[in-house]
Amino acid sequence: MSAFAPAPKPENRLARYRALSPKAAVHVSPLQLGAMSVGDKWGQFGFGSTDKESSFKLLDAYFDAGGNFIDTANNYQDQTSEQFIGEWAEKRGIRHELVIATKYTSNYVNRDGKTTQQVLFTGNNYKSMAVSLENSLKNLRTSYVDILYLHWWDYDTSVEEVMNGLNTLVKQGKVLYLGVSDTPAWIVSKANQYARDHGMSEFIIYQGAWNVMSRDFEREIIPMARQERMALAPWNVIGGGRLRSDEEEERRRQTGENGRTNTGKGWERTESERKVSNALHKIAKEVGTPHLTAVAIAYVMQKTTHVFPIIGGRKIEHLHANIDALKIQLTKEHIQELESLVPFSLGFPYDFFVGPYLHYTKFSPSPDGLQGTDDGPYNALMKTAGYIEKQHGASPIVPDRD
């Protein structure tokens, strides 16, 4: 027996780890456990919530399957999300086996019943950043967080203040990596350039809403992330639970288990959501999974590189169903079938001269005669100069068939 025998290939694909991004080589599970429903304070607001015992069971199921990447925030479930995760990791003695991401910016003392003046506990500014992280470290029972996100852009704080503040926390050893969420692409690019110019830590991961029905993420966020060599952490990948089968919809109607009701749209699917759900269900049968949500997750993972979807939910069976996404190989035809159901245009200037195309994915639908590859076709003016063969960009990891 060799002293340096390689680790066996895990049967559960959640335990097949990947480098997070070209700028952050920490190795993480391909799916993140989203912890917005871990905690017991938001049920009254139409969000899911989970008591401590059930939260620990969900966290155990994720970890036992090989998962090591958990996403939370300072305000989730009025801080009980961080608190439950911290207590669980401490009791299991596994803190250093985990990559824990949390966020600052939102008002986490909103309903604590003791903070009278709350204005200093929100926003992107350094004061908010510092006190939020201090509180998160206490809640998580740790001396550092692996990833600290700026949760959303407040349009008050300067890029300079944000990056100087975040870099200070990194230098103090309280934060290992920086992330940014729900922020315009131009701000992220400006912030990273400022960091590079001044020898500071950059944002290495971007988190935002993306699914087959809502593809605005593809317009500027994904091209920006590729140029900045950032990972992507899409949330709302299964449409807030609204991508489901007709049978599941009827079951909920009969049992009264409606799911989230905080969207303002009611719990039943729209006609467009039904069409996409039916297409996902059809493709699920073709690729050999009973779970249409797994197809929705595979869709974003196979569109571009370094995509680590956030999978939430409260039930262990849903967790295992979502892990099925890691077995699925989608074809170009599958992608085009799904995208044909919900019209989407990149708009100007991305579709100028060449018509609509996706300029970052190997599944890019290009009109006949356009030269180019997964990084986009050349436009008509460029092609007047000669026949140019474009270099291929990086491609996403596609599951093997073992």
Fold and architecture overview:
- By secondary structure, the chain is an alpha/beta fold.
- The protein has two domains: 13-334, NADP-dependent oxidoreductase domain (TIM Barrel, Alpha-Beta Barrel); 347-401, no CATH class.
- It is 33% helix and 13% strand.
- It has helices at 52-64, 80-92, 126-140, 159-171, 185-197, 221-228, 246-255, 271-287, 292-301, 316-323, 332-339, 380-383; strands at 18-21, 24-28, 32-34, 69-71, 99-104, 145-150, 175-181, 203-209, 231-235, 310-311, 372-373, 376-377.
- The strands form three sheets. The chain has an eight-stranded parallel β-sheet, covered by helices on one side. Strands 1-2 form a two-stranded antiparallel ribbon.
- Helix 2 packs across helix 3, helix 4 (159-171) crosses helix 5 and helix 8 (271-287) packs across helix 9.
- The radius of gyration is 22 Å and the shape is globular.
- This is Arylalcohol dehydrogenase.
